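I hope you will forgive my troubling you with a question about protein structure. You will find the record immediately after this paragraph.
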Amino acid sequence: MTQAMKQDVYELLKAYEGQPAATAGTGKDLVNEPMIRHWCEAMGDTNPAYAGPDAVAPPTMLQAWTMGGLSGHHTGRSGAYDELLTLLDDAGYRSVVATDCEQEYLRPLRPGDAITFDAVIESVSERKTTKLGTGHFVTTRMDVRAGGELAGTHRFRILKYAPAAAKPKERPRRPRPVINRDNAGFWEGVQAHKLLVQRCADCATARFPWLPGCSACGSQEWDTFEAGGSGTVFSYVVMHHPPFPAFDPPYAVGLIELAEGVRMISNVVGVPYDKVRIGMPVRLEFLRVDEELELPVFRAQDCGEG
């Protein structure tokens, strides 16, 4: 659509400002206690002003008394609002979203009040570009009366728009590991394609995951050694739910017992998830999951049923 065509459409839309959207509409029900009670229960509002012989309706129910329900209103509706929406549809603005409403309360509504209302197309905005797409904001103002007396106004705004072109979806990246001063050495080893295991400098107990102190003797002195990479599946689970971005369930997550006697959790690859078995021999390899991240995983060495 050229700029001139866009301007022509806008001029046609502006012509609807001030035209009625509803005239002499009538509420289908009198203001009544059951509807007030249902509203308060739904909202969790226990204000005593909304119950008892002197009850008033919650002010925020203002629009509720004007709604036509599933069957709609058979009288009072103006054709101008439908014409405006059709014009927007024909111009390519076929999607719609409610954006906001504003209400002004002038007098309380009480059970027994008969509700009437009029609505007007108050404004149509210039062409606007939003994250959803490009279109026009349409604002209607409804004047709500009780017994002929103005009780409040309700402004309702929608955006009629043409959805923005969807951007190509990039595959989500795997979550980054949490690296701190206690485990930084392990991840440095992974970058060098080494699986480093901590070893207590006093009692020589190997430990994994990395910890600041030895669980056997309490010593805080330690060194590391490189694991050979062979191990077996000590236990495993198959992940189905919940699905996470960058993961494709179902997949097997194993508790791997390394030949060095420590255990670590990682993915079991190279075999269908339903073929993983306890005791299955596995071998360490490093899997690059994106341009920044490599992870140690374990490839099954035996695909038999066992």
Q: What stands out?
A: The chain has a mean pLDDT of 92.
